Amino acid sequence: MKYRTLYFLLTQIFIFCCLSTFGQNYPVYNSYPTNLYLYNPAEAASEYATLFINHRRQWTGIEGAPQLSTVNFSTLLDQTRTGLGVKISSYKRGLLTTTDAQATFAYGIPVGKNDAFYFGLSGGLVSHSVDQSKITDPSDPAIANYLNNNIQPAASAGFVYKSTSGIHLGVILPQFIAQIPASNQLSASPSVNPFEQILFSVYYKKKTESRFVSRTVKGMRTRAKSAAGYAPLELYATYKLSAYQNSQFEVLAKVNLTQNFWVGAGYRQQYGFTASTGFAIKKFLLSYSFEPGSQPESGFSTGTHEIQLGLRFGEEKRLKRKAPVLRSALKASTPQQHSTRLQHSVSDPEKEEAMDQNKNAKKKFLVVIKVFSDFNQAELFKKKLIEQKFNAEIYYYAVDKKYYVHVLETLKSAEANEEVRNLKSYTKLKEAKVVIVQEK
User: Fold this and answer.
1) pTM
2) What is the C-alpha separation between 331 and 319, in angstroms, rounded?
3) All domains of the chain in start order, with CATH
4) Residue 29: closest CA among 353, 401, 287, 404
5) Stretch (H or E) spanning 378
6) Among candidates 100, 97, 102, 192, which has minimal Cα distance to 147?
């Protein structure tokens, strides 16, 4: 009986609050570290095209308790500065349901060599409905007025500065257009009031994908980029400044035990502590979070649960930056010998380690585009690269009897690795890699 009475009072509070003012409560999520677009429209310019489905159920076990379901998709258009996104959410509480649908346009501005500033703008509609089957007096003027004109425009905006240091700063305006109270719907019109709610965010999420490792394949040493990932520790903090409610801060830590499994813990003011975990397998992601607190009284419910599914499409997207000068496309200072089969000789692989100790050994770094078993095929591919203004050459390696078509030969490892990154980012030569050649 006590719970039923409390539920009745809460339902009346929900109705009163939502009929008097719309949109005053900004949605709360625990899964935003893996889906930053949930809060910030600027995050629509994400590195991968990703679809997320999120469901949050508050006060589990209580009939009519708040439930929030969200579907969102976002992506950066590869080699452009444009990001696109769409987000649809349904917020049910008691007899009321609010549906919000918005599309997002985001734009990135490169800052320096690797940093970037992004801004995003979302726009759409928000609608409200009442479950009239559970209303004892559907003719109530307040209900009738609420249903007569309950579709209104909605908009939000966001900014984020992303740094290769891993520290990212953001500002979000979640309610760009002020919602109209039900009592004024027939006489008022929506107004732009972006500063009624402001959300500040700072988070540390450092990429570790720039690391290169040495590998030996059939006696030939190569340099390859390790798998993409992030540092073991990620930290997130947000602060919400609201004209309607008390301001609220939140902190969260995410620990990547591996690149595919993580755990997290956080604290949200007025809600209490949260715990989360999740895993990723190839392009699939699943996360879960739990809030034991934020209840009217102890034992009121089994807590708040949130689950999120994610699916990634395609390869990593890159922000368009000013194209660098490609060393492999510069005019060669000496005539190229394009038809020579055997241009270099390499030592016996068994003696490779000993040669590393030899001060007179000469190490070269080749930027290899493709490897062939047949010389004629290698020659044809080389000519195609030359037509594209690349300084293509063929290197024959006697141990594996393969022909390595390369576009740059240098004595500096840094130059070779930088050229590989530039070729992958600004040309169609996505298979470029560094091969090390060592001679006496």
Assistant:
1) 0.72
2) 28
3) 2-313 (2.40.160), 327-439 (3.30.70.1070)
4) 287
5) helix 375-387
6) 97
